[in-house]
UniProtKB/TrEMBL annotation:
It comes from Faecalibacterium intestinale. InterPro entries: Acyl_Trfase/lysoPLipase (IPR016035), DUF6363 (IPR045943), NTE (IPR050301), PNPLA_dom (IPR002641), YjjU-like (IPR037483). The active site is at 38 (nucleophile), 159 (proton acceptor). SUPFAM superfamilies: FabD/lysophospholipase-like. A motif (DGA/G) lies at residues 159-161. Keywords: Hydrolase, Lipid degradation, Lipid metabolism. A motif (GXSXG) lies at residues 36-40. Pfam families: DUF6363, Patatin. This is Patatin family protein.
């Protein structure tokens, strides 16, 4: 039975996920595959390349660097987070992404993007960690209004969280019948309608299906949470989530706040590590369904 790792997004709430993943790596918890959305994609790739500490390291190092993120970037380029700095300078030079380790790890790694022309999710398997894979990760994390549409082949893509925020059903559909799910909101969270919807309607007037996907995202998200709760109760999923709201802005510039959320993820994972390890081993020993 294949066991998967499902990584929700959430901008800098993703530092919680980074903390959890580092603990999993430190305890050699290995899954058959992983799928990340938005921050879950750009931070989760370090799990496949087995680079413990990389996510917290480069985020705290460069969060105040104007080349990394800022409204100046948004005005000049259309991207709040600099495409050149975040997806080339950092992974290629300043804090290299280990493409060799990524490529040689047999674990599958998928990212989710949203096709702006259809409003539907696109699931892409990243095989090598090369420049094209990095571009798919960038597309997954390209938030509406804060990033330009990313064009890859015939696709026009934005934030995967719009179409499929927590892609557990997709993973089940391709054979991952048991999943470790890392959420970035606490138990009981209920997503509300997007307050920026009027701006999104104006900005993406040429893409009505995308606008509608944004408009009803909260309904699909809350329904998915209900489904995950059922999976959790039946033993088909093990869910790791923060105990309380993380209360961190999407573009946090304070390294201490980034580390606070990261350490929260570490603490939650460390408390549950024996249960997590037992769940993964149990899944590996279970017969095919």
């Amino acid at each position: 039975m294949k066991t998967g790792l499902v990584l929700e997004g959430g901008a800098m709430r993703g530092m919680f996920t980074a903390g959890v993943l580092d603990v999993l790596m430190e305890h050699t918890i290995q899954l058959d595959g992983a799928i990340g959305v938005s921050a879950g994609a750009v931070f989760g790739c370090n799990y496949k390349s087995h680079q413990i500490g990389r996510t917290i390291r480069y985020n705290t190092e460069y969060c105040n660097d104007k080349r990394y993120a800022g409204f100046g970037n948004l005005l000049r380029t259309g991207n709040l987070y600099s495409e050149q700095f975040c997806y080339h300078t950092v992974p290629e030079k300043l804090d290299p992404f280990d493409t060799k380790a990524f490529r040689e790890n047999p674990m599958d790694f998928f990212v989710v993007c949203t096709d702006v022309r259809t409003g539907e999710p696109i699931y892409h398997k990243c095989r090598t960690g090369d420049a094209e894979d990095i571009r798919w990760m960038q597309a997954s994390a390209s938030m509406p209004l804060a990033a330009k549409i990313v064009k890859i082949g015939h696709y026009q893509l934005l934030d995967g969280g719009v179409a499929d925020s927590i892609p557990v059903r997709f993973f089940e559909s391709i054979g991952y019948k048991r999943n470790l799910i890392i959420l970035t909101q606490p138990k009981g969270f209920v997503k509300q309608k997007n307050k920026m919807l009027p701006l999104i309607r104006a900005r993406y007037v040429r893409y009505p299906p995308f606008v509608e996907a944004v408009a009803d995202r909260h309904q699909r998200y809350n329904e998915t949470l209900a489904y995950i709760s059922m999976l959790e109760q039946s033993g088909r999923a093990f869910v790791i989530r923060p105990p309380i709201p993380l209360e961190i802005p999407s573009m946090e510039r304070d390294p201490a706040q980034l580390r606070r959320v990261y350490e929260t993820g570490r603490a939650v994972a460390q408390i549950q590590i024996d249960k997590i390890a037992a769940y993964v081993e149990e899944c590996k020993a279970a017969p095919e369904e």
